[in-house]
Amino acid sequence: MKICIVAGGTGGHIAPALAVAEKIEREEKFFITGKSRASEKRFIKNIDAKEIQYIDVKPIVGKGLKSALGFFSSFLSLKESYEILKKINPDVVIGFGGYVSGPVCLAGKILKKKVFIHEQNSVMGFTNKVASLFSDKVFTSFKETEAPMLLKKKFVYSSFPLRNKFKEDLQRGLEKKNDSDKLTIFVSGGSQGAVGLNKLFVETIEKIAKVFPNIRNHLKIFHQTGDLSFDFVHNSLSSWNAEVFPFTDDFGFFLGMCDIAISRGGAGTVFEIAFSKKVAIFVPLPKSAGGHQEK
After folding, report:
1. How far apart are CA 78 and CA 100, in angstroms?
2. Among 158, 116, 152, 166, which Cα is nearest to 276's?
3. In sequence order, what are the beta bridge partners of 5?
4. pTM of whole model > 0.85?
5. How are strands ordered across the β-sheet holding 219-224?
6. CB of 273 within 8 A of CB of 255?
7. Closest Cα to residue 123, out of 95, 101, 142?
8. Which of 96, 153, 218, 229 is the most exposed place for a label (fewest CB within 10 A)?
9. In this prediction, what percent of the chain has a pLDDT beyond 70?
10. What band does 223 get if pLDDT is binned at 50, 70 and 90?
11. How far is 51 from 31, CA to CA, in rounded Å?
12. Domains of the chain, with CATH numbers?
């Protein structure tokens, strides 16, 4: 059986796709992702598949020209996806959301393939909402994910798949962590970072230091910043016992090493921190799709 897995955009879409891909034999597995976002490029090295294909698709957002360009891009991507799937000839197409997933899943349906999708968040994203209309099954991470009345029979609660790499890295971090008197904090805004969260953490930690000057001697900080605010955070925490990096694929390791995790509320991050049983402070992204991070 040939299985085509498609995911793109952020790590929140790609990581669970990789987790499912780990369970499939290499010779039966094909992966399609985007080629325009940094997170897609960063995760490519972790994809073990017989063949990896890339398509370029723009989001359908905004109004006027921007929205029109998005629709035109989707049409071109559908044609490209159709040609790729016709060549691969998979038995099943599994989409994990992100704009790249839409045209591939639709092309799979046009070619009369079985189409499954997985929704990571408590509120369905735009691409999966559309794909749910023609997909054969919709797997969800949350029992509470709302399903349209006419589509309820195809919705299946499956929870959020976690990568073997995450579990192995978590164990490695737990084993390396020592019981020193330093409180270890891991700050992460997800695979893309979070400028607002980074700034808030820096401002807060400096305010605390003014009240408790010796706190610098009792903290160890790991901080994943994303690309946009790496320099700001790196410079701001230069006098602290801190390791600052724009991105890490060893999220599990740093989670294992920490006492407290401070993060956005993306579904993948929430499930991984819950699995680790670490104390966590979640700062939801205010403008997440459908406000899913606040639910």
Report:
1. 10
2. 166
3. 31, 94
4. yes
5. 242-245, 219-224, 183-188, 260-263, 279-282
6. yes
7. 142
8. 153
9. 90
10. very high
11. 6
12. 3-157 (3.40.50.2000), 164-294 (3.40.50.2000)
**Torsion of Cα atoms, 6 then 121 then 57 then 138, to 10°:** 50
Indicate if the pLDDT at residue 162 is higher than 60. Answer: yes
**Distance between CA atoms of residues 89 and 99, nearest Å:** 22
Cα 208 from Cα 112, distance rounded (Å): 60
Determine phi and psi for 52, rounding to 5 degrees.
-120, 130
At residue 46's C-alpha, the angle toward residues 170 and 87, to 5°, is 145
The two most distant CA atoms of the chain are separated, in Å, by: 66
Instruction: Read off the amino acid at residue 96.
Output: F
| Residue 286 confidence class, pLDDT cut points 50, 70, 90 | confident
23 vs 28, 56, 81, 145, 161, CA distance in Å? 11, 27, 24, 25, 11
Question: Per residue in 91-130, pLDDT tens?
Answer: 999 999 988 999 999 999 999 999 999 999 988 988 999 9
Q: How many CB atoms lie within 10 A of CB 242?
A: 19
Residue for token pair 């799709």: 289
* Segment among 98-112, 163-177, 188-202, 246-260 with least mean pLDDT: 188-202
Backbone conformation region of residue 64, classed left if phi is above 0, alpha if psi is from -120 to 50, else beta: left
3-state secondary structure of 109: helix
> So what's the pLDDT on residue 289?
53
Q: What confidence score (pLDDT) does residue 59 get?
A: 67
Tens digit of pLDDT for each residue in 230-245? Answer: 999 999 999 999 999 9
**Residue 232 CB neighbour total at 10 angstroms:** 15
Q: Which residues of 77-106 are buried (b: 16+ CB within 10 A; e: fewer)?
A: bbebbbebbeebebebbbbbbbbbbbbbbb
